[in-house]
Q: What sequence folds into this?
């Protein structure tokens, strides 16, 4: 098994490349759930879904949500005066309803996400990092905002809002799930995807027991840097890394993951399937070279 | 205030006629919540919403749901292999999301329904009969089914499935809300709409304290019969009334509401706005004639 730790787009793209290289049976993605949010009573899980949509080849070109989706429910909510600051397409919402139904029926988040990936026809495993709720909050402009609110309302995706700190509410009570522990234990390689080291990968590594389980695994651990030419390809990663007192670029990544990784794959663009496969292959080859012989 | 007790279509049509006759400020509808159901984690409230859609002039001609609605979410759920036995249009779902959001934020069902009716621009009050959950179950073919499942899966709307009994789960713990009690107390007339006396009005009257509050009100209580020519206009009312051992027609209605009503308005069709207004006016005039002078 190749275990890929992933937040949003960067990690999801790498996972998609890895799917081509190792096949669905050998791919397990451990996804950040710190961005999860309940909207209109519906459980939305942005990073696990983003990964699932990428793996299903159904990601929309806008970078999130499902391709060829429609917006009827959001239009009706807005017409009714509802706040639709977090916009979900109709089919995207349908996936969230499947998840919510499973959760209300007593399923663990791991099982609920499996219902979503199954519905999308994804053969690989997409595992929430923990079944307990962890809610990443961002301190910005003196306010403490849930991650998605910071990203959407605070202009986070354009990097406009200042980042003063990150809080991971609930993380002390979270634990890696049995599925996550099994994947890490059986892994031939553990790959940290090129997602935001502080706000996306940070919550995964902050789950008590996660770093220990990674360290205990015989698999080599390789991170793929999210920086290309000294800046993150997408999103507010620069602001988070800078706020954490780390330099932008490979050095910052190595320091963010200090003690957790054996090696770093330098910055690459992954904007085509071939490029995604290439990065996946390079990463795996690099991991293999690090394996104790 | 005119207080109208309503289940589905019959009561909703009468309420719509009453809206024209007395205006929104003077109309309060007390709606059956025994058909409520949670679907995909979303709280669906068929009767209060049906009444609200009628009052908003947005009822679809199929007899439920919103006019000109679309079905994108249901299509996506079905494409994903989800069970969509209960079909909700996208805008209909949006109303349910508004309700669910309010409930998850701690609102009472009464307040959550008010958010929906406000969103629809309805000025009249649509009150759930109780804030506590009551779930009407139908015994049919040896099975005990939630009302909506009986209606949709069991062919209930075509009257095809046998009715062996009705159970109102949770009704012992339910109480009329403060809003319902206030409306009954201030009412100049209490009107029982032409909905199913057993399965729709029955749950309202079965809420402990409801019959007492109606009896304590100085207002005359008039029922409008759901029977036209000895049969219910729509739905499985005949089967429920027969199963309860009551004759179809006015006599059955009088016996179903024994002790609760002062008079009965006979069977009328309400298939045009003018007809709905006429029944509303007749009912009010009749109620006025019953008022102690």
A:
């Amino acid at each position: 098994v190749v275990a890929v730790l992933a937040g949003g787009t960067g990690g999801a793209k790498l996972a998609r490349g890895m799917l081509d290289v190792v096949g669905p049976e050998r791919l397990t993605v451990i996804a950040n759930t710190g961005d999860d949010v309940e909207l209109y009573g519906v459980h939305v899980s942005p990073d696990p879904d983003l990964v699932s949509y990428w793996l299903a080849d159904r990601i929309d070109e806008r970078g999130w949500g499902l391709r060829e989706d429609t917006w009827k429910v959001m239009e009706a909510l807005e017409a009714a005066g509802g706040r639709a600051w977090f916009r979900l397409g109709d089919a995207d919402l349908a996936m969230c309803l499947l998840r919510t139904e499973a959760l209300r029926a007593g399923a663990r988040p791991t099982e609920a996400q499996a219902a979503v990936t199954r519905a999308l026809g994804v053969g690989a495993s997409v595992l929430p990092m923990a079944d307990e709720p962890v809610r990443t909050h961002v301190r910005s402009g003196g306010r403490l905002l849930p991650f998605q609110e910071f990203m959407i309302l605070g202009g986070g995706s354009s990097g406009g809002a200042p980042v003063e700190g990150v809080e991971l509410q609930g993380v002390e009570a979270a634990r890696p799930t049995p599925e996550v522990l099994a994947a890490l234990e059986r892994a031939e390689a553990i790959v940290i995807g090129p997602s935001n080291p502080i706000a996306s990968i940070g919550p995964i590594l902050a789950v008590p027991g996660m770093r220990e389980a990674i360290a205990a695994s015989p698999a080599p651990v390789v991170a793929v840097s999210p920086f290309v030419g000294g800046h993150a390809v997408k999103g507010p990663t620069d602001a988070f890394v800078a706020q954490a007192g780390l330099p932008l670029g490979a050095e910052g990544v190595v320091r963010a993951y200090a003690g957790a990784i054996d090696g770093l794959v330098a910055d690459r663009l992954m904007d085509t399937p071939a490029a995604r496969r290439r990065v996946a292959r390079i990463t795996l080859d690099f991991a293999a070279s690090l394996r104790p012989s």
